């Protein structure tokens, strides 16, 4: 871990308790895992209670915005109209769309349709059609704290194959969540996600994953959804990250639109679906902060 504190020093977490009464045993346990060769989180990754409370409030706005999208989205709506709704609702609730202007991203939300894997850019020229599936990815800044989650929506009469893909990606996230508990590993989650997708005949994108979030939009750790159990970073209470597998109907190969520099597509043109939750590791499991 970071600099070793004296037992009677105030704890690094900001609790105002003595280290020996707060995080000393916790730090010693993490250090034991490090000595066994595991990847362990630095203190910067572990959120304190004040930070968790702030991130939770940001997540409430993120959820409310996606709820507004759910009430609005339908056949004939343009993705630009979704973008405007996200911007207006976020501002109404006191937040800021985290995606707007992030590394040059031009909109307040990502709208990824059918074979778009992620980072679809809203446009007034793109109208939702009967049978489409779409991922709407919303991110919020509220009082300096970040939240991030996405949902899949089926537009009109979606065929059985597309409906199954959307259902299975949600199931994959739930399988992953079952493995989120203190002293498990990110790899336990990743393997559960990947195995469920494979069991249903699908693939999972390898190059793009989840991420830490809360004090910044994207933080460590990077989160793979094709990892192996007992690998990747140790999970400890206070960690916050996203689980957001991108599950493809065909090959797991993807490519980026070189013209806009953002949108990823399936290489073979097959459908792709994604579901994203922001999750906190707790003392006895997990808490979903945004979905």
UniProtKB/TrEMBL annotation:
Membrane-spanning intervals of the chain: none
Example of a GO biological process term: proteolysis
Highest taxon of the lineage: Bacteria
CDD domains assigned: MetAP1 (cd01086)
Entry-linked InterPro entries: Creatinase/aminopeptidase-like, Pept_M24, Pept_M24_MAP, Pept_M24A_MAP1, SEC_C_motif
Residues noted as binding a divalent metal cation 2 in the record, renumbered to the chain: 148, 211, 244, 276
Keywords, comma-separated and alphabetical: Aminopeptidase, Hydrolase, Metal-binding, Protease
Annotated EC: 3.4.11.18
Cofactor: Co(2+); Zn(2+); Mn(2+); Fe(2+)
Keyword Protease appears in the UniProt entry: yes
Segments forming domain Peptidase M24: 54-283
Family of the protein in this entry: Belongs to the peptidase M24A family. Methionine aminopeptidase type 1 subfamily.
Quaternary assembly: Monomer.
Entry protein name: Methionine aminopeptidase
Gene that encodes the chain: map
């Amino acid at each position: 871990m970071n600099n070793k504190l004296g037992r009677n020093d105030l704890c690094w977490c900001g609790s105002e308790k003595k280290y020996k009464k707060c995080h000393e045993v916790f730090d010693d346990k993490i250090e034991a895992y490090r000595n066994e060769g595991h990847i362990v989180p630095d203190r910067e990754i572990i959120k304190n209670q004040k930070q968790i409370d702030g991130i939770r409030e940001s997540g409430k706005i993120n959820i409310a915005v996606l709820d507004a999208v759910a009430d609005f989205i339908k056949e004939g709506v343009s993705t630009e109209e979704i973008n405007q709704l996200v911007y207006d609702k976020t501002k109404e609730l006191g937040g800021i769309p985290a995606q707007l202007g992030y590394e040059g991203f031009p909109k307040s939300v990502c709208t990824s349709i059918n074979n778009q894997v992620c980072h679809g850019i809203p446009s007034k020229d793109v109208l939702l059609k009967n049978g489409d599936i779409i991922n709407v990815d919303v991110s919020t800044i509220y009082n300096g704290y970040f939240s991030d989650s996405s949902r899949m929506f089926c537009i009109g009469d979606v065929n059985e194959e597309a409906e199954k893909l959307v259902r299975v990606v949600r199931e994959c996230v739930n399988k992953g969540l079952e493995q989120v508990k203190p002293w498990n590993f990110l790899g336990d989650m990743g393997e559960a996600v990947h195995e469920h997708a494979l069991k249903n005949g699908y693939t999972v994108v390898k190059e793009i994953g989840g991420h830490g979030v809360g004090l910044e939009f994207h933080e460590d750790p990077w989160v793979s959804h094709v990892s192996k159990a007992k690998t990747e970073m140790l999970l400890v209470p206070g960690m916050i990250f996203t689980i957001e597998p991108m599950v493809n109907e065909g090959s797991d190969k993807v490519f980026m639109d070189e013209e806009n520099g953002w949108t990823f597509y399936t290489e073979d043109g097959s459908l792709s679906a994604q579901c994203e939750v922001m999750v906190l590791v707790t003392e006895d499991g997990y808490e979903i902060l945004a979905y």
